[in-house]
Please model this.
Amino acid sequence: MIELEMTMDELLALPVSVDLVTAGRAFGLGRTRAFELAKADEFPCKVLRVGVKYRVARSALFEALGIAPLPVQTGDPRPAA
Model:
């Protein structure tokens, strides 16, 4: 059996953009249904078409799932001397 939904730790570890199957898992969708929705322009969040592939921005995924955006760290992450 394939696990469809993602844990919060899995979601927070996602890269800046993900493939459609990974994004579909976040919504509890299987591969076939995710592609059907994307082709019909009915996927739960914005989907980008790059050539023949679909990509989903992590920010669009988080927004659709109601997850606050991660804070952006600026500056040098090393402690001050």
Remarks:
- Helices lie at 8-12, 20-26, 31-39, 58-65.
- Residues 8-65 form one domain.
- The radius of gyration is 15 Å.
